[in-house]
């Protein structure tokens, strides 16, 4: 596996390849990330993963400074999973000057759900993903990028971005990977106390139960639907 840190070195590493498959990450990798890497492996003629903690998608009070940086361990995991090229740029490589041009996502997709509580988050995500796409797929007629369904809103926003900009990149969804207790794998799960983790598992179970009831209530009376909505709140 080649490890590169600069845009020129990345382009050199990919020069002989026509169809990259790409998995962008922020590092601190777990089995969910590695499942995406294995899923992406047969989708191109070279498999690229990136590790970059993107300042633009963190709010001032969030965990940018404390977010785990575990490059050496992550590189070993990616190598074992079959990654061909690891792109691990420094902040100065992707943002050599203040990023005054940004990708503003469709507010109908980006200003609801997570975006309602993290203003600017999806602008930061779209901007860095666009820059990574330009780096990985520059000069390529086609390519594939794999994103986890766990971050479903992000996937929808990025698919819309790719469509709007006519990018020759297929965005493929990877199934959510879960721990034995049912909690979705996440790099931030380590922040949870034992009690908080148990509560998170119960939230997941409750949402699944409500989803099943919502499907069953598709043709229910209005009063039943209203009662279900009230329970969801």
CATH architecture classification of the largest domain: 3-Layer(aba) Sandwich
- Placed side by side, the strands forming the largest sheet appear as 1-4-3-2-5-6
Superfamily (CATH H level) name of the largest domain? HUPs
Major sheet: size, sense and barrel closure? Answer: 6 strands, parallel
* Tally of individual domains: 2
The overall average pLDDT, rounded, is 93
This entry's quaternary arrangement is single chain
In which range does the helix fraction lie?
Answer: 40-55%
Order of helices and strands: EHEHEHEHHHHEHEHH
The CATH class of the largest domain is: Alpha Beta
Shape: globular
Instruction: Work out the number of β strands.
Output: 6
As a whole number of angstroms, the C-alpha radius of gyration is 19 Å
Task: Summarize the entry for a quick read.
45% of the residues lie in helices and 13% in strands. The chain has 233 residues and is of the alpha/beta class.
Description:
By secondary structure, the chain is an alpha/beta fold. The chain has two domains: 2-185, HUPs (Rossmann fold, 3-Layer(aba) Sandwich); 192-233. The chain is built from ten helices and six strands; from the N terminus they run E-H-E-H-E-H-E-H-H-H-H-E-H-E-H-H. It has helices at residues 7-14, 31-40, 71-81, 91-94, 107-110, 114-117, 121-137, 152-164, 194-216, 222-232; strands spanning 2-4, 20-25, 46-51, 85-87, 143-148, 169-174. Strands 1-4-3-2-5-6 form a six-stranded parallel beta sheet, with helices on both faces. Helix 2 links the parallel strand 2 (20-25) and strand 3 (46-51). Helix 7 (121-137) crosses helix 8 and helix 9 packs antiparallel against helix 10 (222-232). It is globular and about 60 Å long.
